[in-house]
């Protein structure tokens, strides 16, 4: 028998779910071997019971009701000092803060945590989804992370049942479409499984986000990584292709491989060339590229491939056309948040600040990638 100990939230969610209510249905990651990933290391995976999850849903619903009752239905709510707070126990506070955050975010979406919610039995996941929709019928979107190998084990009927119960989007970390890279990073999935799972998600009518990681192949597999990943995505035609450039963190197995020389990290210039090759090899399909992370050299590479492929490629080319000093200034300005794309360098104020910082740091073509790599560690 499970004893409910209060509302839980896991450590991460996709950037696109920043305003979502986070409901934890599993703890940690059932695979947890990917060499680049620092999250969940040393943590045991477990499934939460359906009753625990339902209790969390009900706890947030009760807090939302209390807040709206006190504010007279004011929306959104900007207060975190409600009168009823003094009646709450310590174990209720996490649900309260989750409700406040969600209300301020517009209450449109909900994300199921942690790393692979679809590993639940289908009937349990459907029960949870049905309860979410019962308590929050106004929701526009329920989303989740999932592993391709888990989706591959679900039948088409199971995926359809999950879709019918209200799961609108699945986020999958493909990382690469190259079997050599997938084996090197210990992803626990093959290109074939990634494609098969992605097609299955689309067939069920669920929106699909596939994450890819420029730089993950290192120098050895950079070309193969770009071309094979594009090829796999061409077979799937996901709704979203999300870019997450590799950062090597000290508490990961990949860091040890890098120190030993078994993994050679590519430079920003090489990563830009790899990204260009990747996009060139994507067909003009109805997929939306999203580059919404500070780790990426270009945050303005966004758009539907049918309509904006040439525009995205031209933005990368504009980086190559800069002088060596201009490239350094852009690299630093990008990772300090001054620039989203090369066009932002036309802003004299921002350009001057980036130039001044680069001069103070004494950046040169020989040391800029090391400095940038150290900066990127803080963004993961």
Under CATH at level 1, the class of the largest domain stands as Alpha Beta
Using DSSP, what is the number of strands? 10
Q: Give the helix tally.
A: 14
Largest sheet: 8 strands, mixed
Per CATH, the superfamily of the largest domain is: Aldolase class I
- How large is the share of residues in beta strands? 5-15%
Give the terminus-to-terminus CA distance: 37 Å
CATH topology of the largest domain: TIM Barrel
What is the N-to-C succession of helices and strands?
Answer: EEEHHEHEHHEHHEHEHHEEHHHH
Strand order of the largest sheet: 1-4-5-6-7-8-9-10
Extract low-pLDDT stretches: none
CATH architecture of the largest domain: Alpha-Beta Barrel
Helix content: 40-55%
- Which shape, going by the Cα principal axes? globular
Task: Describe what you observe in this structure.
With 380 residues, the chain is of the alpha/beta class. It has three domains: 1-108 and 117-136, no CATH class; 146-321, TIM Barrel (Alpha-Beta Barrel), CATH 3.20.20.70; 323-380, no CATH class. The protein contains 14 helices and ten strands. The strands form two sheets. Strands 1-4-5-6-7-8-9-10 form an eight-stranded mixed β-sheet. A two-stranded antiparallel sheet has the order 2-3. Strand 7 (207-212), helix 8 and strand 8 form a beta-alpha-beta unit. Helix 7 (191-203) packs parallel to helix 8 (218-236) and helix 10 (268-281) packs antiparallel against helix 11 (305-320). It is globular, with a radius of gyration of 22 Å. The protein starts with 20 loop residues before the first strand and ends with a helix. The mean pLDDT is 94.
């Amino acid at each position: 028998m499970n004893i409910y100990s209060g509302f839980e939230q896991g450590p991460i969610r996709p950037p696109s779910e920043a305003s979502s209510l986070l409901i934890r249905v599993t703890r940690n990651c059932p695979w947890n071997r990917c060499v680049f990933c620092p999250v969940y290391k040393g943590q045991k995976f477990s499934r939460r019971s359906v009753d625990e999850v339902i209790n969390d849903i009900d706890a947030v619903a009760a807090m939302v009701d209390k807040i709206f009752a006190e504010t007279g239905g004011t929306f959104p709510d900007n207060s975190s000092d409600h009168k009823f707070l003094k009646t709450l126990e310590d174990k209720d506070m996490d649900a309260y803060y989750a409700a406040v955050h969600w209300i301020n975010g517009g209450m449109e979406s909900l994300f199921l945590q942690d790393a692979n919610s679809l590993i639940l039995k289908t009937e349990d996941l459907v029960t949870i989804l049905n309860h979410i929709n019962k308590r929050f019928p106004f929701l526009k979107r329920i989303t989740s992370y999932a592993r391709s190998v888990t989706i591959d084990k679900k039948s088409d009927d199971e995926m359809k049942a999950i879709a019918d119960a209200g799961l609108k989007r699945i986020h999958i970390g493909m990382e690469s479409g190259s079997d050599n890279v997938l084996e090197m990073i210990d992803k626990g999935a093959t290109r074939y499984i990634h494609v098969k799972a992605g097609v299955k998600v689309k067939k069920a009518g669920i929106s699909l986000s596939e994450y890819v990681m420029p730089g993950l192949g290192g120098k050895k597999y950079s070309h193969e990584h770009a071309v094979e990943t594009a090829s796999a995505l061409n077979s799937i035609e996901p709704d979203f292709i999300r870019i997450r450039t590799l950062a090597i963190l000290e508490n990961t197995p990949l860091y040890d491989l890098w120190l030993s020389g078994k993994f050679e990290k590519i430079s920003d210039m090489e990563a830009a060339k790899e990204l260009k090759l990747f996009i060139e090899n994507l067909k003009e399909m109805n997929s939306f590229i999203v580059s919404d992370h500070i780790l990426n050299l270009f945050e303005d590479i966004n758009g539907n491939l049918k309509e904006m492929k040439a525009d995205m490629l031209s933005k990368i080319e504009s980086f190559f056309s800069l002088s060596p000093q201009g490239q350094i200034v852009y690299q630093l300005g990008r990772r300090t948040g001054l620039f989203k794309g090369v066009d932002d360098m036309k802003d004299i104020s921002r350009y001057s600040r980036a130039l001044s910082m680069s001069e103070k740091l004494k950046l040169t073509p020989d040391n800029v990638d090391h400095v940038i790599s150290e900066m990127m560690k803080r963004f993961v």
